[in-house]
Design a protein that fits this description.
Elements (H helix, E strand, L loop, with lengths): L13 H50 L12 H12 L7 E8 L4 E4 L13 H6 L5 E6 L18 E10 L7 E9 L2 H79 L8 H29 L7 E3 L1 H11 L1 H6 L2 E5 L7 E3 L1 H17 L5 E10 L2 E8 L6 H6 L15 H11 L3 E6 L5 E8 L7
Parallel strand pairs: 7-9
Antiparallel strand pairs: 1-2, 1-5, 3-4, 4-5, 6-8, 9-10, 10-12, 11-12
Helix pairs in contact: 1-4, 4-5, 4-8, 6-8, 8-10
């Protein structure tokens, strides 16, 4: 009843937030994974192609024992056998150019005779192959050639794969005699790589979509359940608020209705008592008017979607509450005393704060059936106003004191037990508190704490 509960989805949508976040994360992971795996797949397929070419050329040179041409290029017999072996490369459909390098990096043979005798000192792939490692490199040939042996390739192809194949000595297996370099336009291999990469990206996209839909479905279901539970909770809170509102009305109407009943019983209708009857009628009218004001204030509060807070002067409100309860205090011989001075304004909702003060005063009066002093005081500390209400009743035990703020707990016969619970919840929403201090036979102190209203311009 005391405040409007914001709907679960008013400022935050779990499903929408998760959908956006998970989509970004999943797409990022899919792109990263797809790029890494496709690059690895391309590299492995190209290397496998280079290994096949290396086995072919090594077997070819081992068959006619012409590999030693790379060691002794001046030997005419070895040269002829080597040239006969290189003619077999023409049967391969993909090579664009083939070069043969000696162990010092000099080009001893090439399908482009103009390149024979050259040396390219800035060729890290060739240097790595001369150390015995198979090197497979792919790229595109532009207008500016990084390597001298690339000259002329741009007229035939832009994408190429070059394999640097180390040729080993027959009698000394770990000795590198030279390097055979093959330039290829891998049409079939490129098609196979493109198909594999395409399938990989389709799989990544499909997996990402399935993962996103699955997670979004789970979170969507959780979001629906949470919204349904929030709706049920809101309905439960609304019902609880209605009960609290009805209880608050009944709690505060009990004293004026008792006054009405007492006054009515004392009116016996005799002429001799007309003057006394007039006095009782005035009491009845005042009590009914007081009850009507309470009902009006509570109905106004119950229709408010949110309790607006503002500066409230407490001393005039205390005086108004004490004036309303004065007939009851007079009957029970309760003498009240209000601290001198003017306390600072507090941040509160005036009608609801008035109901809380009336409830606290009514409890204090009921705690003193034989009468006694009732003192109201205050002091300011660290931006808070502490208000003390001290009665001279019999007090309560520690066990009862701890239970007094629980809903529906009451020490009075027929009491609803919601006044203090309602007050505590309301004050907590305003940033305040209410506490009760008591000792058996030594009275009770109720302390209300509220934030001090800021001054204008501060």
């Amino acid at each position: 009843m005391l405040s409007a509960t914001m709907p679960f989805s008013a400022g935050f949508s779990l499903r929408r937030r998760f959908a956006v976040t998970s989509l970004i994360v999943i797409v990022g992971i899919a792109l990263g994974l797809g790029w890494m795996v496709s690059d690895m797949l391309t590299e492995r397929m190209l290397r496998r192609e280079g290994e096949v070419s290396m086995e072919f050329i090594r077997n070819l040179l081992a068959t006619d024992r012409s590999a030693n041409f790379l060691r002794r290029p001046a030997d005419p017999e070895l040269r002829q056998r080597f040239l006969n072996s290189m003619q077999h490369l023409s049967t391969m459909t993909e090579p664009v150019r083939a070069n043969a390098f000696g162990f010092d990096g000099t080009m001893l043979w090439s399908t482009d005779p103009s390149l024979i005798g050259r040396r390219d000192h800035d060729n890290p792939e060739l240097q790595e192959a001369l150390h015995g490692d198979l090197v497979v490199h792919s790229g595109s040939v532009g207008k500016q050639h990084d390597k001298r042996e690339h000259e002329g390739l741009s007229r035939q192809t832009h994408y190429y794969v070059e394999s640097y194949i180390p040729i080993l000595s027959d009698d000394q297996p770990y000795q590198v005699l030279g390097v055979i370099e093959l330039y290829k336009v891998p049409v079939q291999l490129s098609a196979a790589i493109e198909e594999a990469v395409l399938q990989l990206w389709v799989a990544c996209a499909g997996s990402a979509a399935v993962l996103f839909l699955a997670l979004n479905g789970v979170v969507g279901r959780a979001d629906r359940i949470m919204r349904e539970q929030q709706k049920k909770l809101s309905e439960s809170q609304a019902l609880s608020s209605a009960v609290e509102l009805a209880g608050a009305v009944a709690h505060n109407l009990r004293n004026p209705l008792a006054s009405i009943r007492t006054a009515a019983e004392m009116m016996d209708g005799s002429v001799a008592h007309q003057e006394e009857h007039a006095e009782h009628r005035d009491d009845i009218i005042q009590s009914v008017d007081r009850a009507n004001r309470w009902i009006t204030e509570l109905v106004r509060v119950s229709h408010a979607s949110q309790l607006p807070l503002g500066p409230v002067a407490t001393k005039p409100m205390w005086r108004d509450c004490l004036q309303e309860l004065q007939p009851e205090m007079t009957r029970q011989r309760v003498l009240w005393r209000l601290q001198d001075g003017e306390p600072p304004e507090v941040m509160a909702h005036a009608p609801m704060l008035r109901q809380i003060l009336l409830s606290v005063l009514a409890n204090a009066i009921e705690a003193m059936p034989r009468g006694g002093p009732l003192a109201i005081g205050w002091h300011r500390q660290e931006g808070q106003l502490h208000i003390m209400v001290d009665d001279a009743g019999s007090g309560v035990s520690e066990e009862v004191r701890q239970a007094l703020f629980r809903p529906f707990f009451s020490t009075k016969s027929g009491g609803l037990g919601i006044g203090l619970a309602l007050a505590r919840r309301t004050l907590a929403e305003w940033g305040g508190t209410i506490d009760l201090f008591s000792r058996n036979g030594a009275g009770t102190r109720v302390m209300i704490t509220l934030p001090v209203a800021p001054r204008e311009g501060s």
